[in-house]
Fold these 4 entries.
Entry 1:
Amino acid sequence: MSEERTNHRLMILGAGVMGVGIAALGLGSGLPVTLVDVDEARLEQARRRIRRELKLARLMGALPDGAAPGELTTTTAAKDGAAATAVIEAVTELAEVKAAALAEVSALVAPGTPVVSNTSSIPIDELAASVARPQEFLGTHFMNPPYLIPTVEVIRGRRTGDPAEAALVSLLTALGRTPLVVADSPGFVTSRVLHPMINDAIRTVREGTAPAETVDALFESGLGHRTGPLRTADLIGLDNLADSLRVLHERTGDPGCEPDQLLLDKVRAGHFGRKTGRGFYDYGGNPS
């Protein structure tokens, strides 16, 4: 294992889709990972999902050749990961939940440890009020699945210091990712542009202009997108998409960001996309 990798020990808060994906990326890159969640049953499920994702990532050639997998520790106590050299928070996309998790963990880790919120939309300066050392706090936006998409949006808040940014860039480099640094703003770049567009695509389906399959085909074969907006929504998670749109709507006032009723209906029915087996498409009832 390279010295670059051995210098990093990663703690991840949250064993949901993104927490599991980031953990799989870290482990597959040879880093030791402590995965923290309040629910032991969820951690057991996460261990199984991580094994599947690592197997898939290897089959797809998405991990470094010859890298011995890192050691995974799962726990319900954040203090068990206090020796980490970096923390990535990946809990649900609700500001109050993230703030509580960040407040706890930032008080546990040693000064100089970057604390990172993986968020698709919540401004970093807003969350910085909850951490012990705002100069060591910044954001990331990993795309799903993290082991397949090499680019990571890095969000620098007004109080983020240069050492914290350098430490995060070092970690992302060790993970084989390409960091692109942007300024802080609701939704940053990707979500501010993409999520309202997906919301518009959902609206066209609800209004009967075209079914989901046709909308996606037009974007894929007509505009050259790798996946259409509705398949992308299912991959993001419709619940996460709705939460992100609410953040954008509340903080920007853009009426185009108000979650469409069809999206809200699907979330209310528990149809969150690939992770539940059904969203705009049916995945056979089998969560991914």
Entry 2:
Amino acid sequence: MIYFTFDPRPDLKEDLLKSFPNEEFVFSRTVENTDLARAEIIVTYGEDLTEAHIATAKNLQWIMVASAGIEKMPNAAIAARGIPVTNVRGIHKVPMAESVLMHILAHYHSLPQIYQYETKHEWKRNLKQRELFGSTAVILGPGAIGGEIGRLLKGFNVTTIGCNRSGRDAAYMDKMVRFDELTSVLPAADIVVSVLPDTEETKHLMTAQHFDAMKDTALFMNFGRGSLVETNVLIEALTENKIGAAVCDVFETEPLPVDSPLWDLPNMTVSPHVSSHSSRYLERSFAIFKPNLEKWRSGNHEELENFVDLTLGY
């Protein structure tokens, strides 16, 4: 039995049932132990499973996560059982890259100010507008999402510098550095974008020293996980004008507390963790799940797409 801990759109469910007429599917908005005990495969967003659920799911053989992040899952309990986990890595690259580019262009061409003037019926032309053309961007995590951001930035003649733990080459990056070399490239960066996952290695990777190394006009963007930088470090960088501005879609505490100073900082844009949202999200997720299910039923378990290394967190 294949157990969904969420209820997909009717058209997607219908397509799934037609594609796999011999499978038993259970769709639920909550995790029910009765059904869970029978489940061979669980499809989840990765935020609703506990160690107790894994213990109850005696027949569980594979977990499909309809998300890229797995940091909220009981990974130790899953690993102890040797249960393989796959995710939908790569489906976020289009909406997230578009969102990042939107915020960059809005910042460079003063769209927030234009909108403010419009609401006041004010015809003002004293706007600080710059070209993105010819700038330099450092992209932390140049995988599927970071690579797509790099591809789009290339259309604006932006020099791209990728940063990951190994320093290995990545698509659409003009140069690559390791995490421990990040400080060396930050002085050249006009834009710093992180799409890194939440792992032991990336937790608080960005420090005050990194912001000290950046241009005071630089745009910092965090679209990966809020654990990348301590909140007080980001606030200090903005209030002391170590950088020009920041746009964050993720935060250490979510929802962002109503009394957080970040809401009111003039050089800060708060985005409520929506950059990956898309009307095609589940459509793309199922496009990965369906071929994987066919491989699973054919016995080709090792050929599943997007295996997750629970020890690394991605």
Entry 3:
Amino acid sequence: MEQFNYNNELSGKIALVTGGTKGAGKAIADRLLQAGATVIITARNAPEQENNNLYFIASDLSTAEGAQKVVKEVLSGYGRLDILVNNLGGSSTPAGGFASLNDEDWESTLHANLLAPVRLDRGFLPQMIERKAGVIIHIASIQGKLPLYDSTLPYAAAKAGLRNYSKSLSNEVTPKGVRVLTVSPGWINTTASEAWLGEIARNSNSTVEEAQQGVMNALGGIPFGRPAEPAEVAEFVGFLVSPRASYLTGTEYVIDGGTLPTI
């Protein structure tokens, strides 16, 4: 059995983290960097705090051109990619259920949350398969199983599609040496979610703590009593892409503090 260096277990690996400038994506990028990987991050806008140890590519992955730009720049600059973390995602559609959504709402959400990973996988998989090595992580969401129809209908549908696609892709490429895994977080405590809670509190004339409890109630409760911290998600992703997880593939892992009511 291969011997692992736990202190620098990703040394020599090239990793790409999409949406790697903020929130869970930033935490994942930092975690892979700490494990010795060469880490590339991509987002539409540069990170607020520059880290010279991370290579940044500005790109809009909600477009086919943006995905092609990233694939071309990574492969031309580094020659290969060992680890792909498809973390980019989010919802900016209006609340109000199906009647409040138009085609543009649906299309923009599906492009960012489903088609961006599909395009990047398609771009990077050939060289992984040729080398019979590689790990792809799809960051989905518990909303793939627990949709909030009033506020995030397209997002929930896209993440459900991502979960199904990830399993199908794993069945195809695992025999060719590439591991594919899905990580589905629940609510994560990010600067964006803090701003969102502040907006809820102002609109409802309540405290931020009351707003947070209201969101947890809407999810059916979080037994752990709080959202996840980005570093908690990143730590698990760091394990999954490491040699220690060499037999894990085709599986979805939920990080939700017990939110989902069923197993």
Entry 4:
Amino acid sequence: MAPPRAVALAPGVFRIPTIGSWGTNSFAFVDDDGSVTLVDTGLKSAPPRIVAGLKAIGKHPSDVQRIVLTHAHPDHAGGAADMAGKTGAPVAVHEDDAGFVETGTAPPTDTSSLAGKFFARLPSGGFPAVAVAERLTDGQMLDVAGGLRVVATPGHSPGHISLLHERTATLITGDAIFNVLGVRYSPRPLCTDFRLTRRTAHVLGDLEYEGVGFTHGPEILDGGRTAVRRFLAKAVDRKTPE
């Protein structure tokens, strides 16, 4: 069965799968005037799937007025240059990841484990560089569909962010937390600082929301906050070695 082109999470909030049904996800926020803010752009090969997802919700690339990146990894920023060209939309990313986006280079990875040391030796490949028009900061409220709050959750990358859409009580985790074979942290070798990832993810348990969209994995629309808080509590109880 072909993956869905777009999945509604809340009024005006959509998940657009770019790998499989939910392997890697972008998101679209539709404003009252019909304009679209696109969150993440997948791999370099993802733009055709994003355009198809926009079409499925009755939108065209010309409707995209802003592109927000949760972080500067190739599976999230790889399609940014192409989508910026297709849409003419400015790109926004946290100030601590902006330099990586503008040079098309991924941030360094955590080398505190053997797997991390191995991954660090592999060619990163990078992604097409794109100009950053807006450098985001923690707590900033973006004028997107009634307000989209920037929540700094560094660790997966130096400037990683999550996003809270307060009007629909929807959280976009970015890669702070995955929902792959259950809710979990991003694997250590994929992070810049895994211990920091674990610490800052707990911010997400203190926010108010109901539905959760994950950039890796399917959404949890009913009881999403409960699921996230339950995972974070168990993670503390397990005292995973750092």
